[in-house]
Amino acid sequence: MKRIYYHTTTIIVFILSIFFPCLTLATDTITSTQPLTINQTLVSTGEVFELGFFDPGNNNLYLGIWYKKIKQRTYVWVANRDTPVTSPSAELKLTIGDNGNGNIIVLNQDETAVWSSNQSVSTANTVAQLLDSGNFVLRMDNDEDPENYIWQSFENPTNTLLPGMKLGWDRKTGVNRFLRSWKSDTDPKVGDYSFKMNIHGFPEIFISKETDVRTLYRSGPWNGRRFSGVPEMKSVSLIEFEFKNNSDEVLYWFKMLNGSYYSRLVMSSSGSLERFTWVESSHAWSEYWSAPRDQCDAYKKCGPFGVCDANASPVCKCMTGFRPKNQQAWDLRDGSDGCVWSSELECGSDGFLPLKNMKLPESSKAFVDQSMNLSQCAEICKSNCSCTAYANMDITGVGSGCVIWAVDLLDMRQYADSEGGQDLYVRVAASDLDQSPTIGASENGSSNNVAKTVGITVGISAVIIILLLLFYLRRKKMQRLKNSSINRKGPHERSQDFLMSEGIIVQSKKDYSGETTTDDLELPLFDFTTLTIATENFSDENKLGQGGFGCVYKGILVEGEIIAVKRLSRTSGQGVEELKNEVRLIAKLQHRNLVRLLGCCIEVEEKLLVYEYMENKSLNTFLFDKEKSARLNWQKRFDIISGIARGLLYLHQDSRLRIIHRDLKASNVLLDKEMNPKISDFGMARIFGGDQTEAETKKVVGTYGYMSPEYAMDGLFSIKSDVFSFGVLVLEIVSGKKNRGFYYSSNQLNLLGHTWNLWTQGKALELLDESIRAEFSKDEVLRCIQIGLLCVQEHAEDRPNMSKVVLLLSSDVLNLPQPKYPGFSLGKRHSEIESLSKHDESLTINGVTVTVLDGR
Ligand SMILES: *[C@@H]1O[C@H](CO)[C@@H](O)[C@H](O)[C@H]1NC(C)=O
Ligand SMILES: *[C@@H]1O[C@H](CO)[C@@H](O)[C@H](O)[C@H]1NC(C)=O
Ligand SMILES: *[C@@H]1O[C@H](CO)[C@@H](O)[C@H](O)[C@H]1NC(C)=O
Ligand SMILES: *[C@@H]1O[C@H](CO)[C@@H](O)[C@H](O)[C@H]1NC(C)=O
Ligand SMILES: *[C@@H]1O[C@H](CO)[C@@H](O)[C@H](O)[C@H]1NC(C)=O
Ligand SMILES: *[C@@H]1O[C@H](CO)[C@@H](O)[C@H](O)[C@H]1NC(C)=O
Ligand SMILES: *[C@@H]1O[C@H](CO)[C@@H](O)[C@H](O)[C@H]1NC(C)=O
């Protein structure tokens, strides 16, 4: 009986081991008599973390820790990141080392150690335990006091900071613990980027590219509440952030207020610092925060004494009392030379300009005194001529402590609200201070008292002129109503005419973003006869093209001005007044990368839009034409890509209306005389009465080949659908080839699939249009291809938004993330589209906008 029973158990164990080859030791601990093989894992008591050997996808074995309950393997620590096990088996052991010390070691198949905890304390009776915090510790068998751990993984971080894990400097041992990225997503080897505390001066944390010793981003110093450059670090109910500076250590860490939530801070292999939190309901990690996040996060974006303001355009500003050091570069939006004082400083009599919501300047050379208050701080700074700025060290309560800078102020930025940054006081000449009592950075720091007097005089004259002007305009309007002549100039232009005729030259108030202030713009209405005459009765000779919304004609007004007239093909569901309102709104969108809407004509049966005329027609006439395409050299193409990106960003984000284009394509990008790109047809969905706030639409408006999968299939659209179209356009511009929607050459792949293949084979450069291979920047081309691929990723949430795209395009510093599989790249998808297109016989597939009714 006993014997049979014994046999049965063996068989059950045998069967179990067949079905569950990866048996876990039912324990969280290893001892010297109980090693861990590659088929076993340790699991922490609360089943939060698991430790074992894994292969990240490069056919090597590593010892690491991951979340037990999360199916999508997420590694938080790797022991032997630089010394992988290459043999098929490995072992984790506790040893009595050569000199009798207990260590955790990883052995490969032939029993040589590839990794060791390398501690030198000599001990016996040790155990190694995986804790629920994710900490893997070596301790005495009978001593669980964290103070007495002999070795712990939390003190040897890799690329991830877990709750409770401390980053920073131990003054006693001189060890500075920091995060270092993986080499790539599948290679845990020490990578290029680090996230490391700088303990000099007023401590703060830097992201650096270690391979070329370059700082990419800094957090700003800890101001008692948060890092001065991380406004998002509000006290949330989920995470608590901690910072400690004392005679023993300078540390940063975070705690989860509810232990059942997971959050981790990761230095990614692409150079961005990312915080993820686990969302149980969607079984996914969600990106909670990341840095660098915008242009102003780029280290020293605006040079010495320059201030970056992400909400302004251009982003770089000089404070009151300062002027750009290199005006020419500044005008070209290169702020890296920064600003200089516009008046001589006189030391004793200088004043201090108060600035609100500032990320404090780089502070490794700052001088800190915890005991001083702000008024004492001001005294010290005022009396020391080399002091350039001061601030409170701690902003909690009424503020305390004193920080003083006696160096150039670097990498400052200003936030829009008081949630970011803190007050900073910057030394300026007393004269500049009186001139501008307002707090804040001004665009221009003009200089002395003479200028001031002149300024006031000019100001008063301006007020008088404006009053006169308003009066004049009013009269003019009355006249116009009387004789109902065509009026196609906004008051803006008319006012200029008036001033010029009066011999006063005014400078246009255009800022460098290309956006003009047009709050007062009144929509010019053209009458139908005028447009009929201008376009010679909409003759075929004057036809410029045909789009989904109607035909476009070239027209010449009686005054000689050339215009483009779009005759909308169908009546919309809207009433005439609503339609006018929409057009009026759209006309207010002005950006140098958008085609300007000059006016409209809405009569009972006719709806026409009048645009500025673009000499070089549309991008597709160049791009897909063998002869003309060579005229678009790489530099031009890159400029075109950047221009389109800025125009689209403006539509998505920067304009007062949030506009989704829904039909971005090469034929909707027009080129002016200098080949500057301008997006046309934006806001058409709005004009046609499409509801922009709705996430789903009954009408699928767009062009196959440029449509994102979620839009073409389900009629779901978002700004990310535009990003997809932008991605397609980028790849078309680089390759000079059309994304035909379905097929590309004989491989049955479209342009996206083709690009993806080249990309994965490391031959992406082959995509570049043959006609321009003579001269190009390899980096830029590859960057554009990668951005293109990022934008056409299958899942909308993976695609970057336009502000990120603009950032990535403009910066060769940031490393790009690796793209995932593009949407619509497989031949098999094609049948799905075809069946979709059968809904409506009148569809034209290529180039022309299709409207599928009831797409969903
Ligand atoms: C681990 O499991 C595999 C297959 O399940 C087996 O072939 C191998 O011998 C096991 N290795 C060890 C060290 O137990
Ligand atoms: C182990 O520690 C010693 C000194 O404590 C050091 O010299 C040696 O480089 C370390 N070895 C490894 C592999 O880290
Ligand atoms: C950090 O702590 C040390 C030692 O207590 C002190 O001297 C120093 O001023 C402190 N620095 C800051 C920025 O708090
Ligand atoms: C933590 O969160 C879980 C899940 O939301 C909740 O059930 C639990 O009550 C929370 N615990 C505390 C202490 O707030
Ligand atoms: C700052 O400290 C000085 C000296 O301790 C004191 O006289 C002064 O009133 C304090 N100022 C403020 C605003 O607290
Ligand atoms: C002014 O401040 C700098 C930096 O803190 C210091 O090195 C210098 O000695 C100070 N000069 C005077 C006159 O106090
Ligand atoms: C800015 O300053 C420069 C020189 O100081 C002056 O020529 C220019 O007119 C000023 N612009 C404005 C807008 O004040």
Short description:
With 856 residues, this protein is of the alpha+beta class. The chain folds into six domains: 1-156, Bulb-type lectin domain (Agglutinin, subunit A, Orthogonal Prism), CATH 2.90.10; 167-293, no CATH class; 296-444, no CATH class; 446-483; 486-612, Phosphorylase Kinase, domain 1, CATH 3.30.200.20; 620-836, Orthogonal Bundle (Transferase(Phosphotransferase), domain 1). Helix 10 packs antiparallel against helix 16.
Q: How would you sum up this structure, described in words?
A:
This protein has 17 helices and 43 strands. The strands form 11 sheets. Strands 26-25-33-29-34-31-32-30 form an 8-stranded mixed β-sheet. The chain has a 5-stranded antiparallel β-sheet with strand order 35-36-37-39-38, sandwiched between helices. A 4-stranded antiparallel β-sheet has the order 1-10-11-12, with no helix packed on it. The N and C termini lie far apart (about 70 Å). It folds into 6 domains: about 1-155, Agglutinin, subunit A (Orthogonal Prism); about 165-295, no CATH class; about 295-445, no CATH class; about 445-485; about 485-610, Phosphorylase Kinase, domain 1 (2-Layer Sandwich); about 620-835, Transferase(Phosphotransferase) domain 1 (Transferase(Phosphotransferase), domain 1, Orthogonal Bundle). Residues about 1-5, about 10-25, about 435-455, about 480-520, about 690-700, about 740-745 and about 825-855 have low confidence and may be disordered. It is an alpha+beta fold and about 850 residues long. Helix 10 runs antiparallel to helix 13 and helix 10 (about 635-655) runs antiparallel to helix 16 (about 800-810). Strand 22 and strand 23 (about 275-280) form a beta hairpin. Bound molecules: 2-acetamido-2-deoxy-beta-D-glucopyranose (7 copies). One 2-acetamido-2-deoxy-beta-D-glucopyranose binds near residues 37 and 89. The site of one 2-acetamido-2-deoxy-beta-D-glucopyranose (NAG) has 4 residues, from loops.
